[in-house]
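quick one before i forget lol
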Amino acid sequence: MTKSELIDKLVEVRGVLTRKDSEAVVSMVFDAMSDALTSGDKVEIRGFGSFTIRDREPREARNPKSGEIVSIPSKKTPFFKTGKDLRERVNNM
């Protein structure tokens, strides 16, 4: 499901909202989640899952084209862990 499909579904299910209002709601939720992760907080949606930031250690890798060893610096990356309810729904399809 894409962001625009989510907006369309929100308009369909909640007929009170216009497409423009639905876009604003979805954007506000995603922005709030992004801001929380950027500031180092955890985002937890009960029954769905949680988003956290994980630190990746620096490492060495190999350039597949030249075979040259390349140093990759440390970085932070978002991580998603599914909630129990979502995991059960997916497994019982």
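fyi The longest strand covers residues 49-56.
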